[in-house]
Amino acid sequence: MMLQRITRILLFILPLLLGSTYVNAAGFYVTGHIGQFRYHSTARTDVWAGHSWFYLLGADLALYKKHCSLHANKALIAIYNKDNFAWTMVLNAKNQKSRVRVYIETSRKIGGHCTVEMIDLL
């Protein structure tokens, strides 16, 4: 009897917890050109160890700073360590001088800066 109650409670609470994690994830799109980009060695001892970042030039800064921190009045977007595909896309866009649309993830940050979730070459 007690086990059934616990099971019912867990079956009720578990979807709420899983659903709330998904609902809290937020993001938005921003468009521009790749500016400066930087890779940090894994030997660093700060939060940037192994991670990278790039500036998105020509981005809507008003939209960007509602959700993310600006750096030198530019949209700085972080890339997680070992996300080689995102890094390759950034390098490709920079070399081709392509315009990009980036989906920014606001719930996961590196050093206070939002992270890239998706990159479209336009």
Quick synopsis:
By secondary structure, the protein is an alpha+beta fold. It has helices at 2-24, 61-67, 84-96; strands at 27-39, 52-57, 70-71, 74-79, 99-110, 113-121.
Strand content: 35-45%
What structural class do the secondary elements suggest? alpha+beta
**Number of structural units classed as domains:** 1
The name of the CATH topology is OB fold (Dihydrolipoamide Acetyltransferase, E2P)
Order of helices and strands: HEEHEEHEE
Biggest sheet strand line-up: 3-4-2-1-5-6
Question: Can you summarize the main beta sheet?
Answer: 6 strands, antiparallel
In the CATH scheme, the class would be Mainly Beta
- Give the count of helical stretches: 3
Radius of gyration: 19 Å
Shape: globular
Tell me the distance between the termini: 60 Å
CATH architecture: Beta Barrel
Mean pLDDT: 84
Helix-residue proportion: 25-40%
Number of strands: 6
Which helices and strands appear, and what pairs or packs with what?
Elements: H1 2-24, E1 27-39, E2 52-57, H2 61-67, E3 70-71, E4 74-79, H3 84-96, E5 99-110, E6 113-121
Antiparallel strand pairs: 1-2, 1-5, 2-4, 3-4, 5-6
Protein architecture, described:
There is one protein chain. This protein has 122 residues and is of the alpha+beta class. It has one domain: OB fold (Dihydrolipoamide Acetyltransferase, E2P). 35% of the residues lie in helices and 39% in strands. It has three helices and six strands, in the order H-E-E-H-E-E-H-E-E. A six-stranded antiparallel sheet has the order 3-4-2-1-5-6. The longest helix has 23 residues.
